[in-house]
Amino acid sequence: MRIGVEAYMVMYYVIIGFGILLFLYILLIKEYFHRAVAAGLTAALTLVVLILLGRHEFMEVLEGIDIDTIILLMAMMIMVTIMAESKIFTYLAVKIIKKTHRSPFLLMTILCLLTGVISGFIDNVTTVILVTPIIINIAERIRIDPRPLLIAIILESNIGGTATLIGDPPNILIGTFADLGFNDFIVNLGPIAVVDMVVALIVLKFIFKDWFNMWRHRVRYFDIDEIIEINRPLMYKSLIIFSITIVLFLLEDTLGYPPAIPALIGAGLLLAMASKEVTIHRALEGVEWTTIVFFIFMFIVIRGIQILGVMDFIAGNIASLNMSKDALIIVILWVSAILSAFVDNIPFVMSMIPVIQKLNIALGIGGPILYWALSLGGCLGGNGTLVGASANIVVASVAEKHGYDISFRYFLGKGMPIMVITVGLATVYLLLFY
Fold it and tell me: Is the pTM here over 0.70, yes or no?
């Protein structure tokens, strides 16, 4: 009898957890409030629900706030703000325009491939923070909407991050647990990541066809004889400190520290070195505080539904299915992708890793194929919605600051088709070669 009551309560909590998620996405899709307000309201609802249910894991909820992500975002935003004061982003924007202004698809291809490749070796949030100011500079000189280019780099950064052990946090979790190294990820996921990046570019050419036509019309009247005065001392300081930061990013897996550490060291050094050119007040003005608040609220919501058992419920149901290896690959890949489009993929991946270990033993599956399915689904799924990945929110917030609104619905219309196509290709890849 007790088992029946306990099972009933577990299901009751799970239904409430799904209800909280539904509430959040109704607010986001309908756009009744700014997304940070929607997340804050849902976080408050989550805490009220936990109180009413007698669940007192409040410290656990607060521990769900990923301080590493918050510090990484703040530190990199400070660094980019200081670097922008040297006019280096404006200079790069003008140089790129001069080379590619008559071929917008070439411009998109260069920016996307650059972003995708860098995202495989540096956190993709860091990558998009650096590339976004260049894109906005380019678009403002052409006097054209930058959102298609911004959407493109978001999608490619999430795809590129799939290819390596350090490209996306879920891969680090999977690699650590399953004892998979950097080369394992490159060899097994690198090929499909490259294919997905190329296919995504081709699809984007059709999705943004009208934008490309508008670009070609605008460049007829575009004057490229612009000279940018760079603050060279500040630029040299910025580039030296930034290079040190990149080296530290690349060493984080070897030396065992989180991504926030290199960013914090870089921001601290640059604040000190550039204190005469850029005041601390000016540097802090560049921090997207709305984005920081949004992430804090979202971490509370995700940890709350995790406490209510939503993640364990999904993982347990997948484990209970009696399927062949191929069917299991498809289910894990697509469930991971769909869920990662709507919730943080880290808690889901953490829940799924021990499940996959059990499945491998029970079904006698050799090799890490199910882990590859989990990785591809968890990483590629981030392209499905605006809140599917940290990079999405960061770029949307920077764009909003410059007067360009990337709404939940706008991103959904562009990102979801790319997600479906890339996950579809990943499905074919896994079934054919594994």
Answer: yes
